Amino acid sequence: MKQQYTIHEILPNIFHLHFQTKGELTRTFIRFQEHYESPKFRNKIFSLKEYKKWYSKTSEKGIKTGKFTYFSDWSGFNIPSKTLNAFYEGKFNPLLKREKEFLEYFKDKSHSFYVIGTFESKRTITLQHEIGHALYYLNPEYHTKINIVLESMPKEIKDTFNTYLGGSGGYHESVFDDERHAYLISNGFDKEFIEEDLNLSLKDVSNYTTKIHSIFNEYVSDKYKLK
Question: pTM for this one?
Answer without folding.
Answer: 0.94
